[in-house]
Design goal:
Layout lengths: L1 E4 L4 E5 L3 E7 L5 E8 L53 E5 L9 E9 L17 E9 L4 E10 L4 E10 L5 E14 L3 E9 L2 E9 L3 E6 L12 E6 L9 E6 L5 E7 L4 E8 L6 E3 L4 E3 L3 E6 L3 H16 L2 H4 L6 E3 L1 H4 L5 H14 L3 E4 L27 H11 L3 E6 L3 E3 L3 H5 L18 E3 L5 H17 L4 E4 L21 H19 L4 E4 L9 H6 L2 E3 L8 H9 L8 E6 L12 H8 L3 E5 L7 H16 L1 H6 L1 E6 L6 E7 L5 E8 L21 E6 L3 E2 L8 H4 L9 H9 L2 E2 L4 E5 H7 L24 E8 L1 H7 L1
Parallel strand pairs: 21-22, 21-30, 22-23, 23-26, 26-27, 27-28, 28-29, 29-30
Antiparallel strand pairs: 1-2, 2-3, 3-4, 5-10, 6-7, 7-8, 8-9, 9-19, 9-20, 10-17, 10-18, 11-12, 11-14, 13-16, 14-15, 15-20, 16-17, 24-25, 31-32, 32-33, 33-38, 34-37, 34-38, 35-36
This protein binds alpha-D-galactopyranose.
Alpha-D-galactopyranose binds next to loops.
């Protein structure tokens, strides 16, 4: 709801649990008053705002009539440079006369239904009605107007902001910095959490105290990047997953961004996020406008899980297109780790047959099917089938896969070109590079210049033709290099600063056209794994390949870190070989599944060489996943124990009515004679009685080695042939753990699984986890019991 007190010039934006209050200051600047727990609309806002009763020494006084006011100590919604605020500006201009001072004062406001901007991804109202407050600020000297948009997503406790800058003057101006928002507050023991990383190490949690000075995270890579994710959290020192105050700021954008956190010498905190101002300048001719990407802000006073829940709900209800938002995703098989570029139709069919027997629903053909693509040095750009590998073409291959009872999907990397390709030989000028310099390569490839309409049209046609040429149900859209040699021969020298943002708009244009034309296709975004994991891509593609790292332990960290800003319903998660190709670490097959189960499940290894043990185990996994798919993919996600800080990870999903829950328990290293594990289940309903049951899963006898003599009733030689054969077939079942527990007990005392192995022997009740061991527990509210209680 948006409440406006016209007399006091106060705007109160209310969500179900939060209030965001701004007001017009006596100077006519727009001031921030309050953001936090919900306040009554009639709350006296006077006592919330910072004020001075006397001039503060050595500040620039904005107006000689009021010596107590200076912009440097004000809480502002839209700071610019030149009138005494020495903190980071949100917008910065260079006018035609060379001056850079700007001063925006309140002009007008209106409340409208959320406006639609077609040029880039954005949160959509879809079914709900979303009110938007637009406050127009104006620089009266330079005739520039700025519309500040505030859209209120009540049920998600989210305020979405964006800015539209309009040049109403007769002269051109240069926009040097155009961030999407500014938030000022008192800096009161805040910590900043960001998500940093690299290829195969995406979104690692990085938490630090915010000291005086400026912290900036950004991307200059042309993608939002694995280096820093465009989602940040500010929280109080004492805040944890279940308790405490925290704010989130996430950008709906996939290109270069910056997030700035400044704590001034007066201990004021400033938070900003938007398009990276580095290497950005934008000429705004007369009457032109510039629209920034949206930023999604949320506040929780119930800890980080609630903050994440707000983002998960916003993404599932207002970012992902409605066709896909609630649609259960297929269990897929991808041939990449099994074959890389080395495959034939025969080999693929063999893989597909094996995959189908496991219960796979979608077979995905990865890189290498097109042009002269036998390695990553050639072929990108030539989106027609390689007849040497697939003589019957894609359509026939898809048919054969369909006959096996599976859907067919395919990999593309449209934004790129290899020099060794027909496309490059025909259009060398389509690549981003400067003619006077030898370009630098990333994975042997160059980036196509998506600012050019003919390039965009070519790509839309290629991918559309491909989709229409065969029964394709899924597309993995990859992007495998960062930008360099930034130069477009289609832009004049005044406009080169636009290139990286125009590229994004070009990409969005392609994706808009393709997804509108082919709404039935399930797109999965990928950029060497998670190099472009952001709400911008999610608007077009309802899932993202979370990371090229599928190691059973690394994935715990990656998915845990990712879960702060993004729901499990968008995270592609595959079970692949052990030892893993990324860290050569061995992890149990059951753990690799137990981790991938909290995402969109897939398998990625040579399915045709699986042992009988592995086949049985995998079939069992897929059955479990399908049975609980809705809960696993769309249930409410909870972080309980942090693998970055402890030797364990506990996570859970619950159904909306709390009648069902799946808990994941993961151990890094086995702890000898360890302590009890008590797992906080306060997210359940204390009024129910639950039956908790561990997922039936299996050990491979190999695990025991010499100790197999103690684990099995019969004596076996661990080096003998019999043991070798048995280990391929024999399913050694884990402990049985079935408990009936009252919700009260679970909520107040937690859940205690079966006793862990202590080195003193083993029986049916002992939970033998071992290094990288894990368990899934399924909780179900018992209907009869509950009826009795109610
Ligand atoms: C990237 C992707 C992988 C795979 C390869 C194919 O690295 O992240 O999953 O598709 O490209 O070249």
């Amino acid at each position: 709801m948006i409440y406006i007190n016209e007399d006091k010039k106060v705007f109160h934006l209310q969500t179900d649990n939060t209030s965001y209050i701004i007001r017009i200051l006596p100077s006519s600047h727009l001031g921030q008053v309050y953001y936090g727990e919900i306040l009554d609309v009639n709350h006296d806002t006077e006592n919330l705002k910072p004020k001075h009763d006397i001039e503060v020494g050595s500040q620039v006084i904005y107006d000689e009539n009021d010596k107590t006011f200076n912009l440097n100590l004000a809480f502002l919604e839209m700071p610019t440079y030149g009138k005494g605020d020495f903190r980071e500006p949100m917008l910065h201009f260079r006018f035609s006369d060379g001056s850079r001072t700007s001063d925006f004062l309140y002009l007008k406001h209106e409340v409208v239904a959320k406006p639609v901007f077609k040029e880039m991804p954005e949160t959509k109202a879809y079914k709900d009605e979303i009110e938007t407050l637009i406050i127009t600020m104006r620089d009266n000297v330079k005739n520039v107007e700025v519309d500040l948009h505030y859209s209120v997503f009540r049920h998600q406790d989210v305020i979405v902001r964006r800015v539209v800058i309009r040049n109403e003057s007769e002269n051109s101006l240069i926009l040097e910095k155009a961030l999407s928002m500014n938030f000022d507050t008192f800096s009161d023991n805040y910590q900043l959490t960001t998500f940093e990383g690299a290829w195969i190490r995406e979104r690692m949690i990085n938490k630090r105290v915010v000291e005086q000075g400026i912290i900036k995270i950004d991307s200059k890579k042309g993608v939002s990047s694995a280096d820093h994710n465009p989602f940040i959290i500010i929280s109080k020192d004492e805040t944890n997953e279940m308790y405490g105050k925290c704010f989130g700021f996430g950008l709906v954008y996939s290109g270069n961004f910056e997030a700035v956190i400044e704590r001034s010498p007066f201990d004021l905190l400033r938070v900003q996020i938007g398009i990276n101002s580095f290497d950005f300048y934008w000429e705004l001719k007369k009457k032109e406008k510039f629209v920034t990407p949206e930023v999604v802000m949320s506040f929780s006073n119930k800890g980080l899980n609630t903050l994440s829940k707000n983002y998960h709900s916003l993404i599932n209800n207002h970012i992902i297109k409605p066709d896909w938002a609630k649609k259960e995703r297929p269990v897929l098989f991808n041939n990449w780790e099994a074959t890389m570029f080395d495959f034939t139709q025969r080999k693929l069919i063999k893989l597909a047959k094996s995959a189908q027997k496991l219960g796979i629903e979608l077979f995905v053909l990865d890189d290498g099917w097109f042009g002269n693509r036998n390695s990553d040095t050639a072929g990108l750009g030539d989106w027609y089938v390689n007849k040497k590998k697939l003589p019957l073409g894609i359509s026939k291959l898809a048919e054969k896969i369909n006959k096996l009872g599976m859907d067919f999907g395919i990999w593309v990397e449209p934004e790129m070109v290899n020099m060794d390709s027909d496309l490059y030989r025909l259009h060398p000028d389509w690549a981003i590079k400067h003619d006077d310099r030898d370009p630098s390569f990333g994975r042997n490839q160059l980036i196509l210049d998506l600012t050019k309409e003919e390039v965009r049209n070519y790509l839309v046609k290629c991918i559309s033709d491909l989709i229409e040429s065969a029964n394709i149900k899924y597309i993995k859209w990859d992007m495998n290099r960062s930008f360099s040699d930034i130069y477009s021969n289609s832009l004049d020298h005044n406009n080169q600063g636009k290139l990286v943002h125009l590229y994004q708009l070009g990409l969005y244009d392609i994706l808009e056209r393709l997804t509108t034309k082919h709404p039935e296709i399930l797109f999965e975004s990928c950029a060497s794994g998670g190099n472009r994991f952001d709400m911008g891509m999610l608007y077009y593609m309802p899932q993202v390949w979370t990371s090229d790292n599928t190691d059973g332990y690394c994935r715990q960290l990656i998915q845990y870190g990712t879960s702060y800003g993004y729901p499990q319903s968008v995270m592609g998660a595959h079970v692949s070989d052990s030892p893993s190709a990324q860290v050569i670490r061995k992890t149990p097959l059951e753990t690799r599944f137990n981790v991938a189960a909290f995402g969109l499940l897939g398998y990625e290894f040579d399915a045709s060489t699986l042992s009988s043990f592995e086949k049985k185990v995998i079939k069992n996994q897929i059955n479990f996943y399908k049975k609980h798919r809705k809960l696993l993919q769309f249930g409410e996600f909870h972080r309980i124990k942090n693998p970055f800080e402890t030797n364990n990870m506990y996570i859970a999903v619950t159904s909306k009515d709390k009648k069902e829950c799946i808990l994941g328990v993961y151990k890094t290293l086995e702890q000898p004679n360890g302590t009890y594990e008590i797992i906080d289940m306060s997210m359940l309903d204390r009024n129910y009685t639950y039956k908790a049951e561990n997922r039936k899963s299996y050990f491979n006898l190999n695990k025991f080695g010499y100790l197999v003599k103690h684990a099995l009733p019969v004596k076996l030689n661990p080096n003998g042939v019999l043991f070798h054969i048995l280990s391929k077939y024999y399913l050694y079942e884990i402990e049985k753990d079935e408990q009936i527990i009252s919700g009260d007990k679970l909520v107040n005392n937690g859940f205690i699984p079966k006793q862990n192995f202590l080195g003193s022997g083993i029986n049916d009740s002992i939970r033998l986890m071992g290094d990288f061991g894990s368990r899934l527990y399924y909780f179900k509210a018992l209907e009869e019991e509950n009826e009795k209680n109610n």
